[in-house]
Design goal:
alpha/beta; globular; 13 helices; 314 residues; single chain; Threonine dehydratase, catabolic; Rossmann fold; 46% helix; six-stranded mixed sheet
């Protein structure tokens, strides 16, 4: 199986640099005091479409040959990847066809439609998402871009950690949340290439702990009826992301729902930035003492900021 390497992430960065935001790295003196560590937050909540997903979608769309791109692209996604793929397709001037579960957050439906994608709604099960997408792909001839288990998506996601490390330099730990593992596997590849001595640690909601179970049992465990406020972290690892995570990641920690909400609130209050619950999961792992951060320099990828302001958890 052909797995991405750091060289592929470097090539992806060169390809997408004209289209993405080089997002800022922020720190907070008061959060550092609370945790007794130096935290550096890579603000992908300020990326185009409000999430790191734009990096992978952009790399995937602009890697396609003219022949592969001519009928457009398609995917199934409940939100950030859908919006990212829709915008990347619009930038390349090709159509995007998105299958979305009908219970996706309203803000995400509006965003995807706003970027000009054609949306097909389906019942909110993985089986329905996949079968509906198959139909759409056959009808349109569009190229499927999987949300995370896709070579060029992983390479694009890895550029966020690459930027973080190039800007901050030496870090003891680099953290990312984990759902399907696209961000985590890209983050791990960049970190281990640039900072071989650093630990890569993922955080996951206890109510959606399939990556945690997969990692420690070393067998891929599906995500079965996950329950968490972190709606970006509901999916299972994939055939590409899982082996990279097994090889390159040092630890996966799980956190409580209360911990996620508390961490999200601290970032809103102390840093004055909007993040979605999924982004708060790594900080929650530090606050709940699942990750030993005291006295260390820790980089954290804040994955996104697309949150329904009418349904805040605090």
């Amino acid at each position: 199986m052909n797995l991405p390497k750091f060289e592929d992430i470097k090539a992806a960065h060169d390809r997408i640099r004209p289209y993405i935001h080089h997002t800022p790295v922020l720190s907070s003196k008061s959060i550092n005091e609370i945790v007794g560590a130096e935290l550096f937050f890579k603000c992908e909540n300020l990326q185009k479409v409000g999430a790191f997903k734009f990096r992978g979608a952009c790399n995937s769309v602009f890697s396609l040959s003219d022949e592969e791109a001519k009928n457009g692209v398609c995917t199934h996604s409940s939100g950030n990847h859908a919006a990212a793929l829709a915008l990347a397709a619009r930038m390349r001037g090709i159509p995007a066809y998105i299958v979305m579960p009908e219970n996706a957050p309203e803000i995400k439906k509006i965003a995807v439609a706003g970027y000009g994608a054609q949306i097909t709604f389906c019942t909110p099960t993985l089986e329905a998402r996949e079968s509906t997408l198959k139909k759409v792909a056959i009808e349109t001839g569009a190229t499927e871009i999987h949300p995370y288990n896709y070579f060029n998506v992983i390479c694009g996601q890895g550029t966020a950690a690459k930027e973080l490390i190039e800007e901050i330099g030496l870090l003891d730990v680099v953290m990312a949340p984990v759902g399907g593992g696209g961000l985590l596997s890209g983050t791990a590849l960049s970190t281990k290439a640039l900072l071989p001595g650093a630990k890569v640690i993922a955080a996951e909601p206890a109510g959606a702990d399939d990556a945690f179970r997969s990692f420690y049992s070393k067998t891929l465990q599906p995500s079965v009826s996950p329950k968490t406020i972190a709606d970006g972290l509901l999916t299972s690892l994939g055939s590409l992301t899982f082996p990279i995570i097994l090889n390159e990641v040092d630890q996966i920690a799980t956190v409580s729902e209360e911990g996620i909400v508390a961490a999200m609130r601290i970032i809103w209050e102390r840093m004055k930035i909007i993040i979605e619950p999924s982004s708060a999961v790594p900080l929650a792992a530090i606050l709940e003492n699942k990750v030993k951060a005291k006295g260390k320099k820790v980089g954290i990828i804040l994955s996104g900021g697309n949150v329904d302001l009418g349904r805040l958890p605090f």
